[in-house]
Amino acid sequence: MLWRKEGWRLGAAVGRALLPNQGQGWKKTSAALCSVVRGAASYAASYSTSSSSACHETFGLTEMQVEFREVARSFALNELAPHSAKWDETKHFPVDTLKQAAELGFGGIYCQEEYGGTGLGREDAAVIFEALAYGDISFTAYLTIHNMNCFVLDTFGTQQQKEKYLQRMTCMELLSSYCLTEPNSGSDAASLETSAVKQEDGSYVLNGAKAFISGAGTSDVYIVMARTDPGADKAKGITCFVVEKDQEGVSFGKPEKKLGWNSQPTCVVSFDDVVVPAENRVGEEGEGFKIAMMGLDGGRINIATCSVGGAAFALDSAREYTSSRKQFGKPLDKFQNTQFKLADCATSLAASRLMVRRAARALDAKIASATAECAMAKRFATDSCFDIANTCLQLHGGYGYLMDYPAERIVRDLRVHSILEGTNEIMRVIIAREMDRQKV
Amino acid sequence: MRVLVGVKRVIDYAAKIRVKPDGSGVDKANVKMSMNPFCEIAVEEAVSLKEKGLAKEVVAVSMGPQASQDTIRTALAMGADRGIHVVTDKELQPLAVANMFKSLVEKEDPKIVLLGKQAIDDDCNQTGQILAAKLNWSQGTFASSVVVGDDQEKVVVTREVDDGLETVSLKLPAVITTDLRLNEPRYATLPNIMKAKKKKIDKVTPEDLGVDVTPQIEVLHVKEPEARSGGVVVESVDELVDKLKNEAGVL
């Protein structure tokens, strides 16, 4: 559906002037025009149907998943890819485009239909997010975080919370942020210090700060983990709350300057005597850490899928570049070094995709090993895909270092995936712990 | 009012076209196929007629092998109500397609048949015209605007012709073929993709429709366009003019 874009229209208009038997010709003309119009920074036009590896990207998917992927891919190529370089450069948070994505059902993919969700599974979501991330990693990453928040309310929220918040979150009338990490509590998440003190009327008063919050300042709703019982064992004293942006005592730090993920804002969220009514408590007191971790199992797959989509784009860019760039009298992709590098990237990409989809399936099936599988997939795919992007940058030579080509942006955007939703070191902790549980 | 809309499965506009080595056609194996872009515009127009309350039912029709059903599903996900799949593995040319449409029109009794102005694979640009002639209906080809009268007796069609826009008023029933600027097709939403699975697709064969689809045109040879040869840098304006005159023959 790329011909929706102005570039296409322009191309087709030119095509009309050509002889009828040059049908294929005008398609190419328009694709060429697209790239002229959008500049070298946007490659998507020429990649819309190329597959990034020798593997069949839709093999093993259900008919329905293939169709979901098709829509997500069209959306990514038409609405995301042409803008991603600009959004990165200008640090623009494309809220309108997020809302447009929600209209297609991407806002609450694995939430119940009753509250505006799409009612699909994690594997479906993995397929969709991968296709979207091909167009813009940072946009899709925020969308996945929002989906995770919807999941939290869909699974643990009261009917009132679902009506008041979830219903408006799935269509992205309300944007949301996930608040677990604090300035002094990162990998050791259970050591969080934000306090929620219960009042006589049942409400809670929140004090503390949350750091590295994606979407903060723009998001309307914050899913906040806070300590309600300082006496309890670390993880057991934590409770989950819904906090609104405009509540008194909620304030935001300056926007963080980041290596990547620039099309979404990140900053500190502070809570100073914020009164949260009892009905905004999600789940029971002390359930917060469990909720946070359950959200993160899925969040890890989501981030891993964003890595796969981004790496697929990087690989396609590198293939395009190495086939057209000539040195020593021949295109770069005629050198065995290039071919071997591309072959390794394709293999690594295929392996990452397999692990991520399998972990998603494990989560859908709710099997006992799902947590370990999610951690493994996240660790493997985010590291491997970063390496793919970095290799692809190297294949671009000096041009890879320039912002005129997308390679460096993919590297910058993917780098953080080895850090957030639990660092890859924490993933190893989780995997080892799960292995311990099943001692031979 | 019922609207019949044609949806052709073609090689995706962005796919790389490979001509078969023997020159008998293009290679369709392992190539991404999707709905002809002009047919997508036709579906969008039909669905929006329904949304405006002007059409009661939108029926998407595709003709071809089993896989054409995917194309009908896409139309159903965009909002068509049901599908008709004319199943055949034989090569179909515009005359046969128009004959089969005529047979379907007699069964379905639509007031408007919406088709793409041409398909991006064979670029024939014939089916709509042949069909209108066969049915003895009005035709509005290359439509960039379609306005159906409230009384549903007439439709005003703006046509994109070479020297501008031509506006015609047609008596219904009519065949309308869509041009690029008519509308911007919507994305199918995830819930609508799921709902489309439950919509009905009737299967018929050319024989059921009483149409002989034997091709009337023989394709002798298919070849790739000439590869672009490199340019030359001219030294002076005189040399440029000389080349334009004597080599290119354009002056």
Automatic annotation (TrEMBL), chain A:
<dbReference type="InterPro" id="IPR009100">
    <property type="entry name" value="AcylCoA_DH/oxidase_NM_dom_sf"/>
</dbReference>
<dbReference type="InterPro" id="IPR009075">
    <property type="entry name" value="AcylCo_DH/oxidase_C"/>
</dbReference>
<dbReference type="Pfam" id="PF02770">
    <property type="entry name" value="Acyl-CoA_dh_M"/>
</dbReference>
<dbReference type="InterPro" id="IPR052547">
    <property type="entry name" value="Mito_Isobutyryl-CoADH"/>
</dbReference>
<feature type="domain" description="Acyl-CoA oxidase/dehydrogenase middle">
    <location>
        <begin position="178"/>
        <end position="274"/>
    </location>
</feature>
<dbReference type="InterPro" id="IPR006089">
    <property type="entry name" value="Acyl-CoA_DH_CS"/>
</dbReference>
<comment type="pathway">
    <text>Amino-acid degradation; L-valine degradation.</text>
</comment>
<dbReference type="InterPro" id="IPR006091">
    <property type="entry name" value="Acyl-CoA_Oxase/DH_mid-dom"/>
</dbReference>
<dbReference type="GO" id="GO:0050660">
    <property type="term" value="F:flavin adenine dinucleotide binding"/>
</dbReference>
<dbReference type="GO" id="GO:0003995">
    <property type="term" value="F:acyl-CoA dehydrogenase activity"/>
</dbReference>
<dbReference type="Pfam" id="PF02771">
    <property type="entry name" value="Acyl-CoA_dh_N"/>
</dbReference>
<dbReference type="GO" id="GO:0005739">
    <property type="term" value="C:mitochondrion"/>
</dbReference>
<dbReference type="InterPro" id="IPR036250">
    <property type="entry name" value="AcylCo_DH-like_C"/>
</dbReference>
<feature type="domain" description="Acyl-CoA dehydrogenase/oxidase C-terminal">
    <location>
        <begin position="286"/>
        <end position="435"/>
    </location>
</feature>
<dbReference type="Pfam" id="PF00441">
    <property type="entry name" value="Acyl-CoA_dh_1"/>
</dbReference>
<protein>
    <recommendedName>
        <fullName>Isobutyryl-CoA dehydrogenase, mitochondrial</fullName>
    </recommendedName>
</protein>
<dbReference type="InterPro" id="IPR046373">
    <property type="entry name" value="Acyl-CoA_Oxase/DH_mid-dom_sf"/>
</dbReference>
<keyword id="KW-0274">FAD</keyword>
<dbReference type="InterPro" id="IPR037069">
    <property type="entry name" value="AcylCoA_DH/ox_N_sf"/>
</dbReference>
<dbReference type="GO" id="GO:0009083">
    <property type="term" value="P:branched-chain amino acid catabolic process"/>
</dbReference>
<keyword id="KW-0560">Oxidoreductase</keyword>
<keyword id="KW-0285">Flavoprotein</keyword>
TrEMBL record, chain B:
<dbReference type="InterPro" id="IPR000049">
    <property type="entry name" value="ET-Flavoprotein_bsu_CS"/>
</dbReference>
<feature type="domain" description="Electron transfer flavoprotein alpha/beta-subunit N-terminal">
    <location>
        <begin position="23"/>
        <end position="213"/>
    </location>
</feature>
<dbReference type="GO" id="GO:0005759">
    <property type="term" value="C:mitochondrial matrix"/>
</dbReference>
<dbReference type="InterPro" id="IPR033948">
    <property type="entry name" value="ETF_beta_N"/>
</dbReference>
<dbReference type="InterPro" id="IPR012255">
    <property type="entry name" value="ETF_b"/>
</dbReference>
<keyword id="KW-0496">Mitochondrion</keyword>
<dbReference type="InterPro" id="IPR014730">
    <property type="entry name" value="ETF_a/b_N"/>
</dbReference>
<comment type="subunit">
    <text>Heterodimer of an alpha and a beta subunit.</text>
</comment>
<protein>
    <recommendedName>
        <fullName>Electron transfer flavoprotein subunit beta</fullName>
    </recommendedName>
</protein>
<keyword id="KW-0813">Transport</keyword>
<dbReference type="Pfam" id="PF01012">
    <property type="entry name" value="ETF"/>
</dbReference>
<dbReference type="GO" id="GO:0009055">
    <property type="term" value="F:electron transfer activity"/>
</dbReference>
<comment type="similarity">
    <text>Belongs to the ETF beta-subunit/FixA family.</text>
</comment>
<comment type="function">
    <text>The electron transfer flavoprotein serves as a specific electron acceptor for several dehydrogenases, including five acyl-CoA dehydrogenases, glutaryl-CoA and sarcosine dehydrogenase. It transfers the electrons to the main mitochondrial respiratory chain via ETF-ubiquinone oxidoreductase (ETF dehydrogenase).</text>
</comment>
<dbReference type="InterPro" id="IPR014729">
    <property type="entry name" value="Rossmann-like_a/b/a_fold"/>
</dbReference>
<dbReference type="GO" id="GO:0009063">
    <property type="term" value="P:amino acid catabolic process"/>
</dbReference>
<dbReference type="GO" id="GO:0033539">
    <property type="term" value="P:fatty acid beta-oxidation using acyl-CoA dehydrogenase"/>
</dbReference>
<keyword id="KW-0249">Electron transport</keyword>
